[in-house]
RNA sequence: GCCCCGGUGGUGGAAUUGGUAGACACGCAGGACUUAAAAUCCUGUUGGCAGCAAUGCCAGUAACGGUUCAAUUCCGUUCCGGGGCACCA
């Protein structure tokens, strides 16, 4: 009886489907465990072997927990709104709903072949009405809530209105509030809502007709498609995630994420503690009597003489190092800063104007990329150091950004390298406040120096001086402590079609929330997916939609994925997004598995939504994911082949001018239109390397010349002209199936590669080598490996185990299909413990020996530990060790084998179930109980001790474990090899670690 | 530039708190079975030196140095690779 995995797997998959073996109940006396994979986007390309890595890991863990007696929720669904479907719709005219449905079907069939234990009854798709109804509902909760700074939590906006009506705010009195008209009230409330509308500079991409999030823009072009992106002012919806910045940061301490992940989130939030300090501004020096006369309206510098040279408005700077305030030698203000026009002196006006023009001419991209070049311009104005009244020149420079802090910094050249470079460039004298820590050649950002030249801070350690300076600044009323965050509020509008419509109507220019019983606001059908007028979304093109004054943008991709883990708990509830009782039962996701690419986007947004829902009392926990496991990427070799570049040119050859008549006679075409299909000349890697190194041998040169000759002569018959070779060659991506260990399989290449043409010429030595590098797996690199094919060829069980066997889940690693044979052999070997090819059944009911039990118990111990710690690769090798040992011991005993099957069920469920039923077991192996570890079989009485001389292993000696150190020493010293090394001398020391090793020091 | 993670045979990778480096596989080489192939099984496989051989010795976990009886593991410096952030004050 052979291991017929195709039959076994399809039969068991069918059985499990029919018996609803993966149905999960919300009502169970067993403890719960929630294992979740990151929401996949159902792309048209389908799955490649990189995708299921995390799914297999989570599936193994889920099945393991089930065997351990947990009620396990392990759902799957689809993040089905998104740009690619819409792009595809624009290109092909197919409705995104149709293509999405098709893609989901493909995904599901691919996933099912791998044998995952999903309860498909709980599947959710973000583009289903029954789902996005609740996305819209949560949006309304966000819209109708504000962040209360006193309680540091979200509260209903009604509470705020009540407060405004009763006691007003620091901006208006209660009486004023009550006299405001609706529009004014709306505007004030909009400043506090968690979902709000605002004008903002957004990344506008003309080609996609949409606004992109920061992380969707790469190097100034759109991530998808690479279209140019420009800044544009638009009215956008935003989520006030900045209100949660501190809580998002603090509660990172409560979750089990990797340090790298926490670090990324911390960087993104970018909290810094410092101070805002006001500096008096003096325009011109005191001998110069010119100053600003008008400070309101459109400000202009007026050339009049006035005695007072001080500006009423202070220069507000943000600094994290108030301890360095006596080392300030100049100020830098962002070129966009509103004070620039006010403080510029007439002398400097033309220089400043020139610099501003220069800055405007620079794209953001240039401003970011050119770090080394120092640019800037003096404004003519000075700030006054509030402590020592020193005059400090004010510059503008593009390295200071208007959007961060106050848009102005105090520059301390002895402590900050950028400031130092700037000072050198403009010959600004540098004040040294850190003594020997500053050597005059570079800045030193230390906090460990004792301050000098610093008035009341003299002799104080910088670290300590920060607090002292802050106290003084606050006491003098010239500034205050201030915490800054780098994070910005999250843009929540997309000028797109394939997303959730907003439950918002615009009435007299005011956004008005629709009521909950009007939900869902259904996404209407459109004929065209192009953008609407003025950059609005496609919905603006629908007359009825526009007439109903509906919001025309839709929600972004992360809307639906910010709360989907809640919907899985209660997917069919029509009266609420998720029943509180149910979410209290399932609570947080215990293990969340996915890639690092969602580190800052999805994870921060879903964490924020969870906090809001918690604040509003809708769920009972404020962090969605208890533990996060980051799966590594599966890479693949990208292979390149070098093709010589050459062009056919007629008429400028050495042989002279083309005889047009003769040419037409030969070819029936005018020479200008003649474009022959030229043979392609491919050169192998070592040859192209030699060419680069100018290391070409005579023989190599001859080969190339010959190839070129063949290529040219064929096409030159009777024609005057020549073929011109460009200098180099083009590396082209090869299909991975034509390459074996960097060697090109020329026959397969000729038959199957899209690059081959009938007249390809190959230039190489003994083997044709290709250039090969490790990169991503994907369609465009022609190296994607499809899991379906592997499941077909080796079975799902083999595929699952091989993916795990590749290496640690969290580590990125290259794919290599070859190794899969080893895992497949292992399963066949396991099968042969139960069945013989000829004799059939060979398993027996005999009592197992202690030695056999020991093999089993070792396996239980290792595999349980490895599964628990997500070390699935070592678990697979432990299975191999176990089966190898049982085979060697010729153990075919049910008592041992059935336990092995339970251990194996999470990893290879089909074969485990089949053999389990062959053993005559009633009931499903899916619900068997995990074998208990019985330590008594693992107790050893003796050990083969490694014996080292001076730490170097020389021999091993078998010793009983109950010997005392003295007895051990005696036995060790009697050993021949030890004697040999001692050369008759007494050892200096003998180190004995019980159960580990012996080391003799001589 | 800053932060995080990593570097182990031809390849993927093992190695509790420092305690027998290279488990388990792939590949390769040789052998058995077979008319042959597939499948299966057995043997070898870090490098170098010596030996008919069992074996022995030396070197060896990116490089160098340190701590220790003992270092892939801890510390320091450097190099290389991957990821994240970036004129962030």
Characterise the protein shown here.
- By secondary structure, the chain is of the alpha+beta class.
- It folds into 6 domains: 31-136 and 559-630, 3-Layer(aba) Sandwich (Rossmann fold), CATH 3.40.50; 154-242 and 489-558, no CATH class; 271-484, Isoleucyl-tRNA Synthetase, domain 2; 634-781, no CATH class; 787-938, Isoleucyl-tRNA Synthetase, Domain 1 (Orthogonal Bundle), CATH 1.10.730.10; 942-1001, Ubiquitin-like (UB roll).
- Helix content is 35%, strand content 19%.
- The protein is built from 33 helices and 35 strands.
- Strands 10, 11, 12, 13, 14, 15 and 16 form a 7-stranded mixed sheet that branches. Strands 22, 23, 24, 27, 28 and 29 form a 6-stranded mixed sheet that branches. A 4-stranded parallel sheet has the order 2-1-20-21, with helices on one face.
- A hairpin with a 6-residue loop joins strand 13 and strand 14 (391-396).
- Helix 1 (5-18) packs across helix 31 (909-918), helix 25 crosses helix 26 (796-805) and helix 26 crosses helix 29 (872-888).
- The longest helix is centred in the first third of the chain and has 19 residues, at 96-114.
- Mean pLDDT is 85; it is low at 286-308 and 652-656.
- The structure holds one RNA strand of 89 nucleotides.
